[in-house]
Amino acid sequence: MAIKFLYAAYSDIGLIRKSNQDSGYASENLLVVADGMGGAAAGDIASSVTVAHLSLNDDVYPADDLLRRLRNSLQDAHEDLIMRTAVDSSLSGMGTTCVAILRSGNKLAMVHIGDSRAYLLRKEKLTQVTHDHTLVQYLVDRGKLTPEEARHHPKRNVIMRALGDSPEELELDESLREAKVGDRWLLCSDGLFGVVSEEMLQSTLSSYSDPDECAQHLVSLALAGGAPDNVTVIIADVVDTETADTLPQKPLIVGAACANPVQVQRNPASAAEKALSLLDNPSPALPTNPPKRPRRARIAALVGALLVLGGGSGAGYMWTQSQYFVAPAGEYVAIYKGIPQKVGPLHLSSLHTKTSLRLDSLSPVVQNRLQTPITRSSLPEAQTVVANLYKNMQDSPAAKPGGDK
Q1: Kind and range of the H or E run holding 207
Q2: What is the number of other CB atoms lying within 10 angstroms of the CB of residue 342?
Q3: How far apart are the two ends of the chain, measured CA to CA in Å?
Q4: Hey, is 53 helix, strand or coil?
Q5: Least buried of 45, 184, 213, 341, by fewest C-beta within 10 Å?
Q6: Residue 292: what pLDDT?
């Protein structure tokens, strides 16, 4: 029997918050909810970055590879957040919770950190699958609080584990499960379960057969209850592809990740395809999983890119030369003009400034992050990145800033 997810996703700012820091992603293979933390410290960026990294797994993989992929993506997101704070101190303190499910056939891999939750409705019985990583849950586990006391406790939003800009090792809950036709999964942020009771969740999940209508009604219940926080809801039904009368669905992106998409690198395609993509679309949205181009299309892409560089149409090349990026130059940090790509033997960048900032004066995480160029749309923005790297360098004899070389 072949199965898939039939899904719906919604995210609402709520009635109190000034911005939506939740992010969500739903497809036939992948479900993600991330609840950003930090207020002015860019929780929306934290949740968007996490969704962007996890979205790269939206494909079909062997079941025994699912957890590794989710684990590695969250580690990449964690390091990404650390690096973003290192180059922009205004982001200090940001973080996010996350719950994600990746499917392969009837096998489901789940990773979880923080207090975003996953519930399973099976045969009319609702079960909370995840276990909150919060202070009040810790006290409940040790008999210091009752579940009812925890629900109204003033410290109920204190998170004990999260993705963020702290260098501590991630502590993830991981599990493998079996998907059964008829199962209904609910992934949500605390903006839902913090307002709507578990009894009402079960009643609603059981009463609305259409995932879209069910998700909308759950958001409406949270709003009717005052919605003091952002509300994000994903409903995913496990259906038999041979008997379910459904049309193919596109991935859904909701919340901050939709409003402020973050670009992270996939496994590289050909140099020509990457260059052509950048030349034609300088502001890409959150990546999806495009089909592979046939060989003829790849050849056309190379020819097209070479024509751009050779003068057939100079606009694309001129755009690349208005960009800048920060990357290593030997043992030092440097600013380059252009984009970090090439088409065949032709490079689309040149060294602009080699600074006196040594790579070995930076933390290992920052050094590792610099292996992927930090792109910016102007020289002043690139210079700001370098200035922030100077501020965050380690105290060492090699870390003394001087004049640029």
Answers
A1: helix 198-207
A2: 16
A3: 64
A4: helix
A5: 213
A6: 41
Contact, 333 vs 386, CB < 8 A? yes
CA–CA separation, 100 vs 54, rounded Å? 8
Angle at 119 (CA atoms; ends 114, 121), nearest 5 degrees: 175
Which H/E stretch holds residue 215? helix 211-224
Type of residue found at 309? L
The pTM score is: 0.70
CA distances from 354 to 329, 330, 360, 361 (A): 7, 10, 15, 15
What confidence score (pLDDT) does residue 270 get?
Answer: 34
H helix intervals, 37-132: 43-55, 66-87
pLDDT at residue number 397: 38
192, amino acid identity: L
- Give the three-state DSSP class for 334: strand
Residue 256: the pLDDT is 92
Among 54, 64, 69, 1, smallest CA distance to 23 is for 54
- DSSP character string of 287-324: ---PPPPPHHHHHHHHHHHHHHHHTS-HHHHHHHTT-E
Higher pLDDT: 249 or 366? It is 249
